[in-house]
């Protein structure tokens, strides 16, 4: 789900502004690139592995390096934009993202690609919050702003949905490098437009930046993910696994201590006194851990086991993409009828059913018999779940905290996804190695990842049932 923020007011000293349709086009193009890069690499992963000699587990860092830095710096990015100017930070973030895309596309070693993806994530974390705040300053409050935000949201959802198809086309007809290089001309074009036509705005408040907090949470999450990965090759009792796990947990504890003492915390701990905030964020971490990895394992399964080409893989995910968009679009209407908590639970159960079904895959699977049905269920349930959880998270927060809480729920989803990918990839790799490789072993390993994902998602459902408030007035009660 793309990050959200509370509407900002128009600057009193606003200069002559460009047409609002042009502003909308520019910021939506920036948001499209950011969201697209979460999913576009999935179909290209087997080609990346062959081209750079990436290991089975090393593949996940092509995804996780982006997601972890994106999540870790997202909240900081929003504050930087408010303090130093939305246009300036939009330009800085887009420049960083574009340059990192070029570096990744030209990478000759696995570490170069992973490092470029990490820098891409930082650029995305700076760029994404600025896109929405620029948009809200361009429109006065009312129906016009609502339509603009709806367009921004749809573009973000579309970027994630078409990532598989775009990645498949580029990998099939050009090379895997173009899933990154395509950002360079598009980014340069949007950058030129931003420099020419966007106007500057900022809140002008003298707020401090919690840079230590952003660095600590990102480093802690990366260390924990690395430790989980090491358990596959060295075991849970090995120093190579235990040391980074312990170090990561220690760094996260230091992060909590820093947040408790700093005057301008990245993540104000007082917000977690609200039942709506801690329950919704906990549920989103678990749901994200299960759902985020769906595209990753499906991409590997259809290409490594079923022998699909990258283009065939991208085309095969079109029904999945349409399903998640459909679920996201009808979720607000269903919330009005059934309630946010009921819809969140129902959506997660639908997705869990699809995930369990997908976990039965084998080496002789077919598109109609193995992929279509469970894939549509997983994606549709994911689309239904995200909106009501976000709605519950913000229901108990003060108006002044709405944007921050929206950023927290998005950060929780990304962080859950990064840790979930590390856990499920390790589970799959362990099973594949135990079965001595081969198509059947890979199908078994990927299937086990979906089965474990089902358990994680059911844990999320249990947390929703027990902890999510049913009514807004219950959001403050423990």
From TrEMBL:
It holds the Pfam family MFS_1. Keywords: Antibiotic resistance, Cell membrane, Membrane, Transmembrane, Transmembrane helix, Transport. PANTHER family: BLR6921 PROTEIN, MAJOR FACILITATOR SUPERFAMILY MULTIDRUG TRANSPORTER MFSC. It comes from the Bacteria. This is MFS transporter. It is found in: Cell membrane. The keyword Transcription does not apply.
């Amino acid at each position: 789900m793309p990050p959200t923020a509370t509407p900002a007011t128009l600057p009193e000293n606003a200069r002559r502004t460009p047409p609002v349709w042009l502003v909308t086009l520019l910021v939506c193009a920036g948001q499209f690139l950011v969201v697209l890069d979460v999913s576009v690499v999935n179909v290209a992963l087997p080609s990346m592995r062959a081209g750079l000699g990436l290991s089975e587990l090393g593949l996940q860092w092509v995804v996780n390096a982006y997601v972890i830095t994106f999540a870790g710096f997202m909240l900081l990015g929003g504050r930087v934009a408010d303090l130093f100017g939305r246009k300036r930070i939009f330009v800085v973030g887009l420049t960083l993202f574009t340059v990192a895309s070029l570096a990744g596309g030209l990478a000759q070693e696995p570490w170069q690609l992973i490092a470029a993806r990490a820098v891409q994530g930082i650029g995305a974390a700076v760029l994404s919050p600025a896109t929405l705040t620029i948009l809200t300053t361009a429109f006065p409050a009312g129906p016009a702003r609502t339509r603009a935000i709806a367009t921004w949201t749809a573009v973000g959802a579309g970027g994630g949905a078409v990532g598989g198809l775009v990645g498949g086309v580029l990998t099939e007809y050009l090379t895997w490098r173009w899933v990154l290089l395509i950002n360079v001309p598009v980014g340069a074009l949007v950058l030129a437009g931003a420099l020419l036509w966007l106007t500057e705005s900022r809140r002008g408040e003298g707020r401090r930046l919690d840079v230590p907090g952003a660095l600590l949470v990102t480093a802690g999450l990366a260390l924990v993910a690395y430790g989980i990965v090491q358990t596959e090759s060295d075991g849970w009792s090995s120093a190579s696994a235990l040391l980074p796990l312990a170090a990561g947990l220690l760094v996260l504890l230091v992060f909590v201590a820093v947040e408790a003492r700093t005057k301008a915390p990245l993540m104000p701990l007082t917000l977690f006194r609200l039942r709506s905030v801690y329950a919704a964020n906990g549920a989103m971490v678990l749901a994200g851990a299960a759902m985020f990895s769906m595209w990753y394992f499906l991409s590997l399964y259809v290409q490594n086991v079923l022998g699909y080409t990258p283009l065939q893989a991208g085309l095969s995910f079109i029904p999945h993409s349409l399903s998640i968009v459909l679920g996201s679009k009808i979720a607000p209407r269903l919330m009005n009828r059934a309630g946010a908590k009921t819809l969140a639970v129902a959506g997660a159960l639908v997705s869990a059913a699809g995930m369990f079904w997908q976990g039965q895959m084998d080496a002789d699977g077919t598109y109609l018999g193995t992929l279509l049905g469970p894939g549509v269920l997983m994606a549709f349930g994911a689309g239904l779940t995200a909106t009501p959880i976000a709605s519950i998270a913000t229901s108990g927060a003060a108006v002044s905290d709405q944007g921050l809480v929206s950023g927290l729920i998005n950060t929780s989803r990304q962080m859950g996804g990064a840790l979930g990918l590390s856990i499920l990839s390790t589970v799959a790799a362990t099973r594949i190695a135990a079965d001595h490789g081969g198509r059947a072993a890979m199908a078994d390993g990927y299937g086990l990842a979906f089965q474990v994902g089902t358990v994680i998602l059911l844990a999320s459902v249990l947390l929703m049932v027990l902890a999510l408030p049913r009514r807004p007035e219950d959001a403050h009660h423990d």
